[in-house]
Amino acid sequence: MTSSQPAGWTAAELAQAAARGQLDLHYQPLVDLRDHRIAGAEALMRWRHPRLGLLPPG
Length: 58
Prior knowledge:
alpha+beta; three-stranded antiparallel β-sheet; 1 helix; 16% helix; cyclic-guanylate-specific phosphodiesterase activity; EAL_dom; Anti-FlhC(2)FlhD(4) factor YdiV; Cyclic-di-GMP_PDE-like; EAL_sf
């Protein structure tokens, strides 16, 4: 996100991004640091914005 972009996206902008196929789902493993085994995963949505590039969650 750039300083010219507001902190939040409107529901309409996100709905348009979904309709255009611009949202990608990525899974990030959660690792237990005690035994270095994968304990789970979190799903993160990233937006392939036409002007701003790949936007991470948050």
